[in-house]
Amino acid sequence: MTDNTRRSLLTLAAAAPAALALGAAAQAQTAKAPVAGRPGAGRAAIVTGSSRGIGAATAKRLARDGYAVTVNCLTNRDLAAGVVREIEAAGGKAIWRQADVADPAAVKALFDANQEAFGGVDVVISNAGIMNVAPFAAMTDEAFDRMVATNLKGSFNVLREAARRTRPGGRIVAISSSSTQARNPTHGAYAATKAAQEMYAGCLAKELGGRRISVNALAPGPTNTALFNAPPALREQAAQRIPYGRIGEPEDVANAIAALCAADGEWINGQVVFANGGFL
Ligand SMILES: NC(=O)c1ccc[n+]([C@@H]2O[C@H](COP(=O)([O-])OP(=O)(O)OC[C@H]3O[C@@H](n4cnc5c(N)ncnc54)[C@H](OP(=O)(O)O)[C@@H]3O)[C@@H](O)[C@H]2O)c1
Q1: What ranges make up the beta strands (E) of the chain?
Q2: Which whole number is the average pLDDT over 98-105?
Q3: Which of 31, 37, 54, 272 lies in disulfide reach of 168, CB 3.0 to 4.6 Å?
Q4: Are 87 and 63 in contact (CB under 8 A)?
């Protein structure tokens, strides 16, 4: 199937029966349409893995756009609290909660905290992720299983809760990776867990079209965070594969995520958006 055929089928699917998978919790709430000016005014966002890196930049960007933001960490509570302080200092609204996305009960508690603080959720960014790279022959069971628990099951936990609770007119973004196309050696297991985000987004978009919720996967390329953590020579190699001659900053990716979440992003639905400066 060509990409165009796939896109056309997805567009048709967006018109699927309105009642499909309509979560009771979301149904009970009033749709919050973005108001002119700031796209997030009156809306709330949950960003998993937002104590640092791409998630932190996204939380701050969405807060600047007017969203009340729920920040999340696994272990770096001080960093999560710092992101909230920064948002508040700039006049925004935010809370933070520790929650391991691999634990469904913790994910539910994260959404509950957002609900209690902000009354509901309009935007969910499933961003928390880890990258363990090794040649197939050297990959340990432990490294593989942790990646599956965080990236595959963890993001599923987040997207399931998002499917139940995101208000009509909302946005859901699952963070994939350009590794799914680059197919680098040592990235096999990681890329497989990230390819799952693209399947999740495509299928979930078809389930939630009746609530006018756009669901996409966004695939960053090499980005300057602890996860990328490449030695200088490899960073330079990666930069040379990007037409701008540099790797991405977390803010570059956050800007692309914010564009999908804004009102004008509605018609981008069920897609894999490569936000990588032209990497490959
Ligand atoms: N950086 C890149 O080059 C790149 C490229 C393509 C895709 N991505 C994707 O982008 C996303 C963010 O990556 P990043 O580079 O910003 O990573 P990062 O700097 O390592 O940050 C990872 C974030 O995820 C959180 N986290 C990790 N495991 C978690 C769990 N089980 N439950 C809740 N939170 C958890 C971390 O919290 P703590 O601070 O508490 O540990 C941290 O906030 C990932 O999904 C990654 O696969 C990154």
Answers
A1: 44-47, 68-73, 94-98, 121-126, 166-175, 214-220, 272-275
A2: 98
A3: 31
A4: yes
Average pLDDT, the chain: 90
Instruction: Tell me the CATH number at 228.
Output: 3.40.50.720
pLDDT band at 36 (very low <50, low <70, confident <90, very high): low
Q: Do the domain assignments include residue 151?
A: yes
Residues in the chain, how many?
A: 280
The whole domain housing 193 covers: 40-275
Which tokens go with 67?
């969203």
Output Rg (C-alpha) for the chain, integer angstroms. Answer: 18
Q: Which H or E run contains 276?
A: none
pLDDT digits (tens, 9 = 90+) for 119-130: 999 999 999 999
Catalytic amino acids? 176-177, 190, 194
Let me know if residue 136 belongs to a domain: yes
Mutation to probe ligand 1, out of 60, 72, 74 (largest number of atoms < 8 A from CB): 74
241 lies in some domain? yes
Q: What is the pTM of this model?
A: 0.90
